Amino acid sequence: MATFKEGIGLDQADRLIIVDGKYYAIYDYTTIGGNTMPLVIEVDVLDVLANPGAAIETSIEQFESDTGYIFQPIFMVSQLSKTDPTDETTDLDYILNFTKNQLEKKANALGKKWFLNDDVQRLFALQAITGEDISEYLEPVLEGYGTADERDWIELVYRDINKAEEIVYDNYENLLLSTNQMRITGPGVDALLKDLAGDVSSGKFGTGQVAAAKVNEIISYLTDSVKRDMAGGINAIDEEYRQYVGQIDETQSGIAAAYSLVKDYLGEDIAKTYRSNGMLEQYAGLLRADASAGYTEGGGPNETKLTNDLQAAHDKIFPGFEGSKHKDWSGPIYEIGGTTLGKSFLTAEEKKQMDLISQKVGGDMNLYEQELRTQFKNDADYQDKVLLGATSVFNQDISGVFVGQGMSRR
């Protein structure tokens, strides 16, 4: 049933109610979040009503109980924009859908949270269908929302939207430059930076160094799973940024230092194993945690624990060299191995075999050389050396024979 008389250029409301003797037209608006929210407009000109008797009488309390929203009429029917049958942009459904789309765009560009607030959406919808300024109504709606900085930001958005967008874009460019320098990658980087730029601009993170520290914290937790786990896991990240876990690539910072540390104590073969099984990333994360705590030159608590653990592992794996490091004794071992086997260059696999022999015989070089010859007896280089040695002895013997014969002739 029509709420308004035909031909007066008003979009029909979804229903008509009476509260305390006054008529109100109700338009149901679906918010971005999917909720159905009532837009309440006072009917100040009763002549426009098609059938006043069809209005349902209710109370404020009952209305709020039925809808889940506060009863908040702001505009009047006399303020409603007129519709033009020849212009679809004057149709209420078109206006509300367009408003919703604009809100979503602004939410992405200017700090999304408050734009998606249901009461704010209602004000925008009312503004769209009446053409009236809603600025004066925002303050009570947003009272208690966010921080003073965030409320100042909202005021700027209404006072000078272009200036607000310029600030967000500048912050986005600064963040993009910083993350490029930090070599932060991943499919979610661009969306993350836009969200951060909006929140930084809106004052959600505070200002100056406080805001910078918050941004660094969020990025570090997203790029460093070790640091995130040390801080309590995914719950350490602000809820709205948890969606980016797995969308931002893990940082490689500290990997080289961790690899070098493991290689020094346990050798290159074990260091490669640590890299493939994920242990190296754990170690790198601990070293980064030390650096974040101010131990930029090493010697932090995590590094100290790592070196103690690696020393203990070394002494267990290579008991014959207890108290030393792999890098301290492996050089001479490889040199002896190369000389014994006639190799000027050792492959990683050959070094691994020599490490295993050293593990077996400890520091006894005689046993080491014996075991080396046994294990490499089928090695081509070693066979060539043995053959060359045998040929050298044979040549010496023949030479001796001929020299002897020559002397006997004289």
List keywords for this structure.
mainly alpha, 18 helices, 410 residues, 4-stranded mixed sheet, 6% strand
How would you characterize the overall build of this protein?
The chain is mainly alpha-helical. Among the domains are: 15-145, no CATH class; 161-244, no CATH class; 255-317, no CATH class. It has 18 helices and 4 strands. The protein has helices at residues 60-67, 92-110, 112-115, 118-130, 135-142, 148-159, 161-181, 189-202, 208-223, 225-230, 255-266, 268-277, 279-292, 301-317, 326-341, 348-361, 365-375, 380-409; strands at 15-19, 22-30, 36-42, 56-58. The chain has a 4-stranded mixed beta sheet. Helix 11 packs across helix 12. The N and C termini lie far apart (142 Å). Mean pLDDT is 76; it is low at 382-410.
Helices and strands in order, then pairings?
Elements (H helix, E strand, L loop, with lengths): L14 E5 L2 E9 L5 E7 L13 E3 L1 H8 L24 H19 L1 H4 L2 H13 L4 H8 L5 H12 L1 H21 L7 H14 L5 H16 L1 H6 L24 H12 L1 H10 L1 H14 L8 H17 L8 H16 L6 H14 L3 H11 L4 H30 L1
Parallel strand pairs: 1-4
Antiparallel strand pairs: 1-2, 2-3
